[in-house]
Amino acid sequence: MAALIMVRPGRDWQSSGGLFDWTLEYLIPRLTDPTTAEWLRTVVEENLGSLWIPDLPYEAQSEIYQLLRADLLRAAERELPEAAVAELRELIALTY
To answer: Which domain of life does this protein belong to (predicted)?
Structure first.
């Protein structure tokens, strides 16, 4: 199943459902806003397959961008194949 993250208006990232879930599962325990973390958990558990970051509160958007830029690649390099890491690099580039 394909999945989509709308990173910013006009900038979206498409991936497999598995990589999408892995990305959200990376973010969930690191988010300081419990409401946003719970929403991401719902997206994963209900297999909704899309996340629109611009629809989240501004503070949550900023935190997600920061988390994606900070350590996501290191975690991915430890856990995922290189092709998935390359896709995540594309996601991170969209946050700027």
So the answer is: Bacteria
Residue 53 burial (CB count, 10 A): 22
Kindly report, residue by residue over 27-44, the tens digit of the pLDDT: 999 999 999 999 999 999
What b/e string do you get for 16-38 counting C-beta neighbours within 10 Å, with b at 16 or more?
eeebbbbbbebbbeebeeeebbe
Q: Residue 60: which of 38, 93, 75, 44 has the closest Cα?
A: 38
Reported residue count of the chain is 96
Cβ(84)–Cβ(19) under 8 Å? yes
Contact 21, 44 (CB under 8 A): yes
Residue showing tokens 């856990």 = 79
The model carries a pTM of 0.95
